Amino acid sequence: GTKTPSSDSKEYRLKPEEELRLEVAEGKSDSVKLELAQGMAEIFGTELVCGNSYSFGPGSKLAVFTWHGCTLSIKGTPEMAYVARDTPMIIYLNTHAGVETLRKRAEKAEKRGPVVMLAGPVDVGKSTVTRILLNYATRMGRSPLYVDLDVGQSGFGIPGTIGASLVEQPASPDGEFANKAPLLYHYGSSNMGANPKFFKELCRVMADAVQKRLDASKKVKYSGALINTAGWVKDEGYSCLLFAVTTFNVDLIIVLDQERLYNELVRDVPPSVHVVYQPKSAGVVERSKRTRFASRMSRLRNYFYGNFESTYFPHTFDVKFSDLRIFKIGAPVVPKSCLPIGMTNEDAEMKLVQVAPSKELLNHMLSLSHATVDDEKTISTNIRGFIYVTNVDVERQTVTILSPQPRPLPDGVLLWSDVRFIDAN
Ligand code: ADP
Which phi and psi angles does 158 have, rounded to 5°? Predict the structure, then answer.
């Protein structure tokens, strides 16, 4: 039942294994404050501290789950708030227990721990289940690697990239892991279909890096890795998924919600890979194209400006056209008859093409590569950060950029992204 202790806060009493689902409206709405008044509760595996107040900004969608019962108090006006009895949390907890058994076995045999992949169509809770499993792992003292292959809604905040990071502590209640230095690779589009061949190449590079990271410490090695994937599971998207399964030597695939994908994977993956089917939570909120776009923009905004917990002050400065070395990956596909002898379109997809500065750079994100020269290794070199073009002055031959670091721009190749940041600040 609910009661109202004061005019602006509302209390919810949850019985064991229930969750309070909350949605905060998008746009300029006020944030909602949540407090655990009594008992124990968690948000997607992150435990709440009794008496602390947690804020959730516009667009937040979450569930506060309790294993043993609790009392929650909400301040502000959520767009939606209801208590659900039916959740798949016990299934996810059992999955965690199963993965933990594999880690113990790995530890005994001094072998690599489990590499677990989440797969399924969009909006089934893949990112959420990845987060739950990562959080539960850290609560057992494990340090798994978190790999995000979703270029559209990357867990690392920057659309158009794939990333990996060591997770040693549970995420904050709003879902951020403390990734001080995630390993990021530039893909250059939030649409995975833009260049599947290049995507596969990046998977290969990332898989190598992950293997090295697993080999570098026993703790990480036994903990293994959790890989989140994009929701494009048809046609070329499916082919990319299969490629990732073999490249990362995945041991266990958890398929959420789609039996068809489950059956396809059972048919197509090597017999050593274990595939399980699990239901999605009814609480997972479907996101419209607009919502997805808004969530990409807010992630970019957080990259430059931070959020209400920690505010950053990015730098704005001009750079001469002549000081910019911008490249894009993939030459346009042309009819075979037009290609130079011996060259195929396949080569074109991985080609580094110089981009001359022009008005067209306006609002585009650029990745700053660790590569300082443009050669065949550039496309598979990780990136150190991002800038964004706020103005192009063709007459003065300069661009104005927004950068987390003060001038000068570090020496390095810039990689063009089709992701544009529409800054509402
Ligand atoms: P996917 O990765 O499959 O696209 P997500 O894990 O990102 O899906 O989930 C979509 C949205 O639904 C997210 O905003 C997430 O916070 C929300 N969500 C997931 N599970 C629940 C739940 N049980 N109750 C309320 N919201 C949820």
Answer: -110, 110
How does pLDDT run across 317-332, given as a tens digit for each residue? 999 999 999 999 987 7
Token code pair at residue 63: 């569930």
| Nearest CA, atom 19, ligand 1 | 284
Predicted TM-score (pTM) of the model is 0.94
**Taking CB atoms and a 6 Å cutoff, what residues make up the pocket around ligand 1?**
21, 61-63, 122-128, 231, 281, 283-285
Give burial (CB, 10 Å; 0-12/13-18/19+) of 366.
Answer: buried
Q: Are the beta carbons of 13 and 84 closer than 8 angstroms? A: no
Per-residue pLDDT tens over the stretch 120-149: 999 999 999 999 999 999 999 999 999 999
| Mutational pocket test of ligand 1: of 26, 285, 296, 299, the residue with most ligand atoms within 8 Å of the beta carbon | 285
For ligand 1, the distance from its centroid to the CA atom of residue 166, given in whole angstroms, is 22
ipTM score here? 0.99
Query: What are phi and psi for residue 305, nearest 5 degrees?
Result: -110, -10
3-state secondary structure of 202: helix
